[in-house]
Specification:
The protein is mostly helical and 248 residues long. It has one domain: Farnesyl Diphosphate Synthase, CATH 1.10.600. The chain is 73% helix and 0% strand. α3 runs parallel beside α6, α5 packs antiparallel against α6 and α9 packs antiparallel against α12. The longest helix is centred in the first third of the chain and has 28 residues. The mean pLDDT is 88.
Length: 248
């Protein structure tokens, strides 16, 4: 019998650079997106060192949170990924859970530190979001069985982006913030539903309730297109109802 060989150990920093196929233009676009939230909330005014500092730490906090969320997802969904994403780091044996856990903790710590440097309330928002993500990803989405639970609540992770940006500059423009929150929710949901179609076999095996496992692939595809259409309409409304421009 042939003995199984252990996967070659990779330095964490080298591993992170090869971790997911995220193109450079996408990574750059996140910087612009995270910066645009406090900028849109702040409005067309003179920028002093204080607002520039807020924008800078907002980018760092939200970017750290972005990576932390993806890594925690890879850890909590390792059993599902073994079926539907066998090339992901843990099922492919590129990194073990303990080492990945340390990296996730590091990014989580950065998220909390940078959010605190923005404001105390941003720190509280990040804490509340972290608790929700932890319980939702690890327990609730596998326990609660009502139709499409996972894809109804998972997009709430992304609505922290506009909320964080508006709280960061103490904006009281709740109408614009609400528009952005609703847009973000529908846009992210339109993205998540097709992923649920791809992940159907793993989700079914481990009891994760998505639109696909609840209503079938064809209906899930129709729902995703409808959500995309709604988010497009909301995007147009935001463009005309706020100071949003092609720059923001």
């Amino acid at each position: 019998m042939k003995r199984k060989t252990k996967p070659k150990s990779i330095h964490p920093l080298i591993f992170l650079s090869q971790w997911r196929s995220l193109p450079y233009y996408e990574l750059i676009s996140y910087v612009l997106m995270f910066a645009s939230m406090p900028m849109l909330a702040y409005g067309i005014k003179s920028y002093d060192i204080s607002i520039l500092r807020t924008i800078f730490f907002t980018i760092l906090a939200l970017y750290s949170g972005f990576f932390a969320t993806l890594i925690w997802n890879d850890i909590t969904d390792a059993d599902i990924d073994a079926i539907v994403h066998p090339d992901r780091p843990i099922p492919a044996g590129k990194i073990n859970k303990k080492r990945f856990f340390v990296i996730a903790l590091l990014f989580s710590a950065f998220t909390f530190i940078f959010s605190f440097l923005v404001s105390f309330w941003c720190f509280i928002i990040v804490g509340a979001a972290a608790l929700f993500v932890a319980f939702h990803n690890k327990y609730l989405r596998r326990i609660i069985g009502f139709s499409a639970y996972s894809e109804i609540f998972t997009p709430l992770q992304w609505v922290i982006v506009p909320i964080f940006g508006f709280i960061a500059v103490n904006s009281s423009n709740y109408q614009d913030m609400l528009l952005l929150v609703v847009f973000t929710y529908f846009a992210d949901k339109a993205h998540d539903v097709p992923e649920g179609i791809h992940d159907k076999n793993g989700d079914q095996k481990y009891g994760v309730s998505t639109y696909t496992t609840s209503f079938g692939e064809k209906n899930a595809a129709k729902i995703s297109f409808t959500l995309l259409f709604i988010s497009g309409i909301l995007g147009i409304i935001i463009f005309f109802a706020t100071i949003l421009t092609f720059f923001f």
